[in-house]
Write a structure and sequence with these properties.
With about 850 residues, the chain is α+β, with helices and mostly antiparallel strands. Helix content is about 45%, strand content about 20%. The longest helix is centred in the N-terminal third of the chain and has 65 residues. One of its GO terms (molecular function) is phosphorelay sensor kinase activity.
């Protein structure tokens, strides 16, 4: 029995191997390309065959339609000829055909309904020149007083249309018309008369035409002889000839009546004669002129109708092949065939790639696991480890594959190992991706028994072999060390530091923070930050905290407001708080740096008290200056008066020494009066406010120069004003006083070694306007630059009071501006008065 089964098993194996090789061969790229090539070839052949069949059907249909149209034109014009011969029969059967007889005959034909395309049936007679007047009078006597033969130019032979029915407004335009006068008409009329047969004219424009919808036309004539029978010779025919029964045709209307809307896929052009040229085009079914390019399907047919040759030119529309029955069939076959071919190619190729992917999927996912940055461990539902990567083996100190087949609990610390199976089973029962041990510090056990802090993410994985659990494990030893370092930094910070999460829970404090608010070490951790907010502000604090985390950035808390923190005993501590956002893998946090400002506030209050005392002293000094300058002015006036009286009384008797002494008294009195005047002015400046307007500097400087004209000319000084000058917001009177003091100082301290030039200009900055007064006077040594702006301080030279520049400084301070001095001894000075711009008020 075994010997019988072995060959059969071997045969089955060979069959299986053959089947596998066949499947591999069928699913190979070569097979896909071969199948694609063959199927495309079949599609091409099918396309060619169907295209040929469609073309053949189209050509047959084109040939049938052209023959049908040709026959329709011949038959219709033959019938119209018979109608005309019927008119001849009317004349032959009657002794006299009156106008009424002729009208009744034509009316009985029902041209509008049974003979579409014919404009009417007429009768024209030849007229000799000698009979013309009598003919006209005879017709007029029949009730047509305006009748005449047209055209009216004299000629040897005439003809006239005397009957034309239906006698409507269009045909009345031809009444009396001499068709013999037109060469094209005359040729057909003569041919009909001489040959005793119907004759059709060439292309003419009917006299019935108006300016609208003008069509080309033609006429068909049949002769009427007085002998009733047709004479045998031309001479006899001319002698017996009495008129023509004829029909005028508008080509467009005629062909519409013949062809109708039979086939708009084949166009027809009718040419008069054998030459196809625009001048000989009688009719075209196309709305636009024929295209110059030659269509795929065309046909020329020459027919002879009533002795006139016409060329019928048929041509199909460009897409005629597509318009016939199943015309798109080749395209459908080509597109459908290519689509099926590509689909078949795609299926075979896709099967090849699926096979290859199925072969490499194990290698791929193994490679992915190995290249993952974290340690990965995969277990089955019973907790048995089925896959680990190199990172996991290294993290836990195991050799490659050493963990495979062991329970996951081998990596769980002994302290919690017994409880772990129950936790694992609960996860398998309700699997979902989540972090393991959220909110707890996790550790895992290495092979050597040591523990490592970790973070673990769990993800279920469903496979045909069952449900697996993928554990992604991150070694957070470095993070823990960094956290410990951060705690040390916070602890060693000079200020109180408190760190909270985005929910307002305190996660970390330093000793300074605990001491500031009166808590024991670690007592604040885990509590809400609101516990440190005064009760008056506590309700609104969560909204402020949420707003900060929506747009986190380093900033001061409660800028512009007095902040206080609430200590454990309920007291409030004045503080300044700086907020700094901190983003970590654990979430978003904020670090609050808190400074106790009790001492600063105490020092600030002492400084404010000192400033108030200084302001009081300044006020008392201002009052003293005012009182002294005011009270001393009256005695000085008296002394000055007595000095002048003495000078006058002793003018002739006083000695030179006495006169010099009196002059000294008078000079000192004048100097003291000037000093007291300046002091009064300075006192008023200090006490009064300043009203500001726009100051026109050009007008102000012009007035000052006129005022100082005498002193300026006395020292031969030159004043230059650099225009245009900017507009300054200020008090015009005080600015004038400043400028006058500076000009007077330049004149008073003129350098005798060079001429004095004073230049006045302005410059404009973003937030200020500067008035610059520059001179070439003596200049001021740099060591006196600050001193000269103090009251009673002046240089040793000159006779100033030492108050003028103090007034300038006070005026600029009143304008919230400043005066800047640039000067060097022997090179002149430049005083810059800086005025702030007036800010717009919203």
């Amino acid at each position: 029995m075994p010997t019988d089964k072995q060959p059969q098993s071997s045969a089955n194996g060979l069959k299986l191997n053959s089947a596998i090789r066949f499947i591999e061969l069928f699913h190979s790229p070569i097979t896909a390309w071969v199948v694609l090539g063959l199927s495309l070839a079949i599609t091409v052949v099918a396309y060619i065959i169907t295209s040929s069949a469609v073309k053949e059907r189209a050509q047959d249909r084109f040939e049938y339609q052209t023959i049908r149209t040709e026959n329709a034109i011949k038959e219709r014009l033959y019938l119209y000829e018979q109608v005309l011969w019927g008119g001849v029969g009317l004349f032959n059967a009657s002794t006299e055909v009156t106008r009424a007889d002729y009208a009744n005959y034509v009316k009985a034909l029902q041209l509008d309904t049974k003979w579409p395309g014919v404009q009417g049936i007429g009768y024209s007679i030849p007229i000799e020149a000698s009979q013309l007047e009598a003919h006209i009078e005879g017709i007029r006597a029949q009730g047509f007083p305006d009748y005449t033969v047209k055209p009216t130019e004299p000629r040897e032979e005439y003809s006239a249309i005397i009957y034309l029915e239906p006698f409507d407004w269009r045909n009345q335009r031809a009444f009396g018309y001499d068709m013999w006068s037109n060469p094209m008409r005359r040729e057909a009329m003569a041919r009909a008369r001489d040959n005793a047969e119907a004759a059709t004219s060439g292309i003419i424009t009917l006299v019935q035409e108006t300016d609208n919808n003008v069509q080309r036309g033609f006429l068909t004539y049949v002769p009427v002889y007085s002998t009733r029978a047709i004479p045998p010779t031309v001479e006899e025919r001319r002698a017996a000839f009495i008129g023509w029964v004829y029909a005028p045709f508008r080509a467009g209307n005629l062909m519409q009546g013949i062809l109708g809307a039979d086939d708009d896929q084949i166009h027809l052009n009718i040419y008069d004669g054998k030459i196809k040229q625009p001048e000989s085009l009688l009719y075209s079914s196309e709305s636009a002129p024929p295209e110059s390019n030659i269509p795929d399907l065309t046909k020329d047919v020459t027919i002879t109708l009533q002795g006139r040759e016409w060329t019928l030119y048929f041509h199909a529309v460009p897409n005629y092949y597509e318009l016939v029955d199943n015309g798109h069939q080749p395209v459908f076959i080509a597109v459908g065939g290519v689509a099926v071919n590509l689909l078949l190619f795609y299926v075979i190729y896709a099967l090849y790639f699926l096979n290859k992917r199925a072969e490499s999927v194990t290698k791929d996912w193994r490679m992915i696991i190995e290249q993952a940055p974290n340690a990965l461990i995969i277990t089955n539902e019973t907790g048995e480890i089925v896959v680990t990567n190199a990172q996991a083996d290294t993290l836990f100190g195991y050799a490659p594959n050493e963990l495979l087949g062991q329970k996951i609990e081998v990596l769980v610390p002994h302290s919690i190992r017994t409880a772990h199976p129950e936790l694992r089973e609960s996860f398998v029962a309700a699997p979902k991706a989540r972090s393991m041990g959220a909110g707890r510090d996790l550790t895992a056990q290495r092979k050597d028994g040591s523990e490592v802090p970790v973070e673990i993410g769990l993800s279920p994985l469903n496979t045909p072999q069952g449900r697996l659990v993928v554990a992604s494990i991150v070694d957070i030893s470095e993070r823990k060390q960094a956290q410990h370092t951060l705690e040390k930094i916070i602890e060693q910070a000079p200020n109180a530091l408190i760190m909270t999460d985005d929910k307002g829970t305190i996660t970390l404090t330093n000793t300074q923070a605990d001491h500031l608010f009166g808590y024991r070490r670690g007592e604040l951790t885990g509590q809400k930050i609101d516990i440190l907010v005064p009760e008056a502000n506590r309700a609104g604090h969560p909204a402020h905290r949420d707003a900060f985390f929506k747009a986190p950035k380093s900033r001061l808390m409660g800028a512009g407001r007095d902040l206080a923190g609430r200590a454990k005993d309920g007291s409030e501590v004045p503080v300044e708080i700086g907020l700094n956002p901190l983003t970590t893998p654990l979430g978003n946090f904020v670090v609050a740096s808190i400074v106790d400002i009790k001492e600063r506030l105490r020092a600030q209050k002492m400084l404010e008290h000192t400033n108030r005392q200084l302001q009081q002293k300044n006020h008392e000094m201002e009052q003293f200056i005012y009182t002294v300058s005011h009270d001393l002015k009256s005695p000085l006036v008296t002394i000055g008066g007595f000095a002048k009286m003495l000078s006058t009384g002793l003018a002739n008797t006083a000695t030179d020494k006495q006169k010099h002494q009196l002059q000294r008294i008078q000079a000192n009195v004048d100097h003291m009066e000037t000093l007291l005047s300046d002091l009064l002015q300075l006192s008023r400046l200090i006490r009064q406010g300043v009203d500001k307007t726009e100051v026109d500097l050009e007008a102000l400087l012009g007035s000052l120069i006129n005022t100082l004209e005498g002193p300026i000319e006395a020292v031969n000084a030159k004043v230059e004003i650099c225009k245009p000058l900017a507009i300054i917001q200020g008090n015009e009177r005080l600015i004038s006083q400043c400028v006058q003091n500076l000009l007077s100082n330049a004149i008073q301290y003129k350098d005798e070694q060079r001429p004095l030039t004073i230049t006045i200009s302005t410059s404009e900055q973003a937030e200020s306007v500067s008035l610059i007064i520059k001179d070439t006077a003596m200049g001021i040594d740099a060591k006196y630059h600050e001193q000269i702006f103090r009251i009673f301080e002046r240089l040793d030279i000159g006779e100033g009071t030492g108050v003028g520049l103090a007034i300038v400084k006070t005026v600029m301070e009143k304008h919230s501006g400043q005066v800047i001095l640039e000067s060097e001894l022997g090179k002149g000075s430049a005083f810059t008065l800086v005025f702030p711009k007036q800010k717009n008020k919203d």
